[in-house]
Amino acid sequence: MIRASNADKSKVVDILVSAFAPLHEDNSINLVVKQDKNRIKRMRVLMAYLFERALLFGEVFLSNNNQACLLISYPHKEKTTLKTIWWDIKLAFQCIGIERVFKVVKRQFVAKRNYPKEPHIRPMIAGVKENNKGSGTAARLMLEVMAHHKNNRLPVLIDAASPDNARLYQKLGFRIIKKEESLGFPIYFLRLN
Q: How is the chain split into domains, by residue range?
């Protein structure tokens, strides 16, 4: 496991785009990314945004083979600054599209009401390059990060829009605390600790 730095931004963005570009079903990424001819370009904007937020308010990890990544946030450390406002504006115009902002705000509201106010750790997004899917690279990275945080006393909360991902998280020790379907696709909220 490698702790990523600013120098790894393009590598992390490439991994995440490779992981999510083939998915065209309803999910959180496709809800945020405007679905048009510039979808991949818009997806890169979203992944760069998530990387920047994770680096500022959490941690970013890469697998040893640079084929998978995991972005973690510590929501109790997040704060609004001019920089984060600028990132939000850029995301709205370059990725979401102004006409779809309401849907994204609704997604954020659904997530917020299902996450506790108490300090916790939140894995934001994980991905593995398309050509490495099924190799165990992403699961290994997740286990390494969990071992790294073994003395952590904070709960770990995650959401998943795919039943397969929810099952994977359950195998890692997470338990489903809620299934939300108000956005037109399921979102599983899971907790560890």
A: 2-137
In angstroms, the CA 124 to CA 113 distance is 16
b/e code 18-53 from CB counts within 10 Å (16+ = b): bbbeeeeeebbbbbbbbeeeeeeebbbbbbbbbbbb
Distance, in Å, from the CA atom of 137 to the CA atom of 105, rounded to the nearest integer, reads 32
Residues 71-129 pLDDT 10s? 999 999 999 999 999 999 999 999 998 888 888 888 888 888 888 888 999 988 989 99
For the CA atoms of 47, 188, 75, 44, what is the dihedral angle to 10 degrees?
0
For the domain made up of 2-137, the CATH class stated in words is: alpha beta
C-alpha triplet 6, 8, 13: angle, nearest 5°: 110
Q: Count Cα neighbours of 33 within 13 Å in the Cβ-side half-sphere.
A: 27
pTM of the model: 0.89
